[in-house]
Amino acid sequence: EAGGSVTISSADHPTASQADDGLPDTFRLRRNGDNIEVLINDTVAAVVSAAAAPRLVLDGSSDDDTFVIDFSGGDPLPADGIVVNGQSQTHGGGDALQLVGGTAANVVYTFANASDGSIAIDGVTVAYTGLEPIRDELTAVERRFVFGETDDVIILDTGPNADDGMSRLRSESSSETVEFTNPTGTIAIDAAGGSDRVVLQSIDAEPASKISVAGGAGDDTLDGSAVSHAVTLSGGAGNDSLVGGDGDDQLTDPTGNDTLVGGPGDDLLVAGAGADSLVGGDGNDRLDGQGGSVDTLSGGAGDDILDGGSGTDLLAEVGDVDFGLSDSQLTGLGTDTLIGVEQARLVGGPIANRIETSAFSGPVTLEGGAGDDTLLGGAADDSLRGGPGDDLVADGSGNDTLAGDAGNDSLFGSSGRDLLDGGTGNDYVAGQG
């Protein structure tokens, strides 16, 4: 290591604008053969050997300066990295940092606050203070954005220009605005601690990049509903809300009382300890409740696998279809495989629905809706409500509650202590001793 540092400011060359004169300066760091050069307003201000280059400190003025790190002639970064000091910002645009002309495997942004932080480019650090904004045109495999332990509002979108191959990351108060070329591998956002909200909006040209968001500790909202790209959303400690988009998403949250919504696509939803709500949406989804609490699982349309894990878990579905329920399968919105599901709530729609649960051993709550419905309970203590229409409501064994509501209904009790209420209309009510 070279050790020490060299500080370069606009005063280091007579043709540079004077500090605080209201005229912005442009600093350019570049590689020229075996040397690293610093140019100020296109004039060379410093030359150091790349083999023994010290840490470089670029000091701007209180004007809105631009700092360009140019990789087109090779890697211009000393082994000990550089520091970019934007100084105070007195004008609307602020001091800008640009990364141009090169490639990198990994680019990691670590945000300290709205104007300070660092960028690690394949392990070499560019530290900065007093900046806004950053434009990163490097061709990278992965870009990772790491936030601090604060309550952040973070937005990833296409930026000011559509279809230019770039995206933009911004926040309300915790980071610089970063426009960046879409990486070939992964866009990763680590919101870290705090109660964060991360919103994925339209992504430029739907890049090949994978999109990964980690919420960290705190009550987080991770919202990918606006993108058709496949996303990976990971919650942490706290009660989180994770919402996928139109792609084949992966949503995981090991702790807390969480809500996971997959959306369209073939999604994987994995919860953990806590009373969680898992909603698959359209597509062939897998929902895994795990943990020992009461999870609520809704597969939606498609052929889903619903695994409640340990605990007394609830299957909940709504659809204007005929449902058939057993301990291992639900038909209606598709053919769902059930594992570890101990209770169910099924709701029909406006047409005449048949909801058959006689092969299910757990308690069920059935609601028919507005049509002339047929509701058939099972062996446990069930609650069956026909709703408007001329309904047939029949229970199995168990202590059940049957309600016909409006219409000319037929209610049939069975063994057990049943409560039958026909509601308005000319109803037929029959029990069994």
Describe this structure in words.
This protein has a 22-stranded mixed β-sheet, with no helix packed on it. It has a 21-stranded mixed β-sheet, with no helix packed on it. A hairpin with a 6-residue loop joins strand 15 (166-171) and strand 16 (178-181). The chain has two domains: 5-314, no CATH class; 315-433, Serralysin-like metalloprotease, C-terminal (Alkaline Protease, subunit P, domain 1, 2 Solenoid), CATH 2.150.10. By secondary structure, the protein is an all-beta fold. The radius of gyration is 31 Å and the shape is rod-shaped. It contains no helices and 43 strands. The N and C termini lie far apart (92 Å). Helices cover 0% and strands 44% of the residues.
